[in-house]
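Changelog note: in this version the structure field was regenerated for every chain. One regenerated record is shown below for reference.
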Amino acid sequence: MRWLHELPVVWIAVVVVAAIGLLVAVAYLITVRLAVAERATALSSVSPGLLPPIGIVLALIVGFLAAGVWGDSDKARDAESSEASALRSVVLLSDQLPAGDAARMRLLIRRHIERAVHIEWPAMARQEASLAAIPVPLVQALDLALTFKPQTDGQSVAQREIVIALEKALDARRQRIIVSDSGINAVKWLGLLGLTAVMLFAIAFVHSGNRTTAAIAMSLFGIAVAAVVVMLVSQDQPFTGQLGLDPDLLEEVLPPAR
């Protein structure tokens, strides 16, 4: 479904509404074909009390899916924020280092951010980013901080804080790559759509005695489901699509080229 996630939200809505509309139409036509002779009486005898339990189960599934989707989005934003904050701290603390080491440190941070923006972010959007890829500039910056020989107390403090900030940046990078692979899997989507189909048939059976009422009730339910699916599809992959997370925070802390 990657192609669907990469569409603008408007086009996602068009595709989803068309798909749910087709499901509603199929359920309605099947019910109309079945509701003849003795079967019509049997279908119309289905108790309306069946609808609330099915609706509650569907609502619970949607709630759990939505909680996971928005939880992943929050984790992605927190990871980017933590990484940007840590890198900004490194840049500020590098002023306490000798001029050559400070310039080298800022250059490595700049290279890391550029690599994250231009290479890692597109890979995360495709859910192809891997923890196996080593962030070379960040590792080199950590090596520079660890091998630096401080000459003053201020430099000693700066060295310690730089190492801590770089480790925090490395951990935040790992977190955003892990979160980038999250999303609603096929089994959950099939479960949601399968239960939607069950609910549509239940509505159709309950109102099979009046086709107009059945069509109206099924259409309203279909619209509600379509709205839910659009919200889930447009946000279930934190770095993908129009509503995906941008590397704007990292770009804000990009050290100037010198």
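Spot check on this record: Residues 2-213+228-252 form one domain. The chain is about 75% helix and 0% strand.
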